Amino acid sequence: MTEKNITATVNFYLLGFKNICKYRTVIFIFILASYTTTIIIDSIIIQLVSTRKCFGSPMYFFLKNFLCSEILLVTFIVPNMLRVIWLNGATISIPACIAQSYLYCASASTECYLLAAMAYDRYLAICKPLHYNNMMGKNLQHNLVVFCWVFGFLLTSVTLYLLCQLDFCGPNTINHYFCDLAPIEELACSDTLVIQREILILSVPLIVTPFFSVVMSYIYILIAILGMPSVTGRKKAFLTCSSHLSVVGMFYGTLVIVYMIPSKGQLQSVNKVISVLYTVVTPLFNPFIYSIRNHEIRGAISTLSIKKWLQNKK
């Protein structure tokens, strides 16, 4: 009986962005500044929503959890991304790579569910205003949030288990700046048919179902708004949904573009650039969208800034 001479791969090599030596420092500073700003602004909004009584409505409770998931998502990706950019490519162990892929998918899945929960909250507030307080009670709020977090991390653990079963014994270079699912699959020596089918099946409850829930909620919201007799009432109802709708558009828009574009050949570079929009730029814009369009959050941030300025003057 003959034995195959197979050398197991221990580490992956993340290529990052090729041919950026001239602009490496500029790109590094931009991404670091974007990441730092995202963390700071998200943390300020979370603190305000958690400590001030005026932010006691369900909308802000869901917003707080959504921003927490945003912080997790960018933290799982950006610090190592900065290392890859600065070194113009860097190694990562296979367990660390698989862990990053799982945590990224889990936090993104949780965001999908939280956006659906926020859409359902807006549906109840606009379409069933008289019953809103009774229907969206504390128990339902907490149950929805627990479901979002648990289901997002639990379902993606199936992918984690299957990734851990793969063997890696050939090429070890990933033409990306983080460990996404597709590049990991491409480097596997063992059969990946099971995991490909599993990802396709899980995309229904993790992505399609929450998106369908958001779409249906906004169809009913639009019908309710158009049926309002008052122009002022229609405008107010639309403004309460505009921030969330903008975030939903950015989130699913970049998500679809990233995973609809083939990740092979020359399109890999395009895919990586669009992935930067999804993992860096979109999380940066989201807190600004909520703070700029929401007069309560905008007013609270202004008050907090004035208080800190007065304290520094003393």
TrEMBL record:
Where does it reside?
Cell membrane
SUPFAM superfamilies for the chain? Family A G protein-coupled receptor-like
Q: Is Transmembrane helix one of the keywords?
A: yes
User: Is the keyword Glycoprotein in the record?
Assistant: yes
Give the record's membrane topology. Answer: Multi-pass membrane protein
Q: Which GO terms describe its molecular function?
A: G protein-coupled receptor activity; olfactory receptor activity
A cellular component term from Gene Ontology for this protein is: plasma membrane
For this protein, the record's Pfam families field holds: 7tm_4 (PF13853)
The cross-references to Gene3D superfamilies, in alphabetical order and at most eight, read: Rhodopsin 7-helix transmembrane proteins (1.20.1070.10)
Q: What is its main location?
A: membrane
Top-level division of the source organism's lineage: Eukaryota
Q: Which residues cross the membrane?
A: 26-49, 61-78, 144-163, 199-225, 237-261, 273-292
Q: Which PROSITE patterns match?
A: G_PROTEIN_RECEP_F1_1, G_PROTEIN_RECEP_F1_2
Q: Which residues form the G-protein coupled receptors family 1 profile domain?
A: 41-290
Q: Mind listing the UniProt keywords for this protein, alphabetically?
A: Cell membrane, Disulfide bond, G-protein coupled receptor, Glycoprotein, Membrane, Olfaction, Receptor, Sensory transduction, Transducer, Transmembrane, Transmembrane helix
Q: Would you identify the family this protein belongs to, as annotated? A: Belongs to the G-protein coupled receptor 1 family.
The protein, known as = Olfactory receptor
Q: Which organism is it from?
A: Pyxicephalus adspersus
